[in-house]
Design a protein that fits this description.
about 180 residues; alpha+beta; Aminopeptidase; eight-stranded mixed sheet; about 25% helix
Length: about 180
């Protein structure tokens, strides 16, 4: 993929929160939440236990112009909420496609935050995609429900390696045409 086409990341505003690019100052909250085993086990890329320096390296990769994914903080300060309630990511793929992923801090589970963040990102379509993909671990039906609620359609079963679990985990894969 040609990284020279990477554009500056925009802030996406909703009534409830903003999806904003990461800042170096987010590292502490990201580390606190992503070090939680419940969060790490439901992602493919967060190790558990979290190695020292990994969060700072993640933030540094996320804010560089040479990145291949865009990462937004779910920031609720505008409505009196927390500065960082989770992260949502678009991994750029070829043929005008992206894969959406993310996590919500446990304190904000069951608040429709994940659905609202995905809806906002799909509506804004900041990478001008024709298709978005997503997946959910099969032992996390709540994430699958969020995806279908956001208009994603089931594509098939697969598996993804989870660093926290040190194992391949069965997944459901979803797609959304834009």
């Amino acid at each position: 993929m040609d990284m020279s086409s990477t554009t500056p990341q925009i802030t996406l505003e909703t009534d409830r929160f903003d999806l904003r690019p990461l800042r170096v100052s987010d590292a502490g909250l990201i580390e606190m939440y992503s070090a939680d085993k419940r969060v790490a086990r439901m992602t493919s890329s967060i190790p558990h236990p979290l190695p020292p320096g990994s969060t700072e390296a993640f933030v540094k990769r996320s804010i560089t112009h040479e990145r291949d994914e865009d990462v937004w903080a779910v920031d609720g300060l505008k409505t009196g909420g927390a500065e960082l309630m989770g992260l949502i990511t678009l991994q750029r793929m070829d043929r005008n496609q992206s894969e959406i992923s993310g996590w919500v801090a446990p304190a904000f589970w069951n608040t429709s935050l994940a659905s609202d963040a995905i809806h906002a990102l799909v509506k804004a379509n900041p990478n001008d995609n024709t298709t978005m993909f997503a997946s959910a671990f099969q032992d996390n039906p709540a994430s699958a429900k969020v995806l279908t609620h956001c208009g994603f359609e089931y594509l098939g079963d697969a598996e993804t390696f989870s660093v926290a679990r040190d194992a391949a985990v069965p997944t459901w894969t979803y797609t959304r045409k834009l």
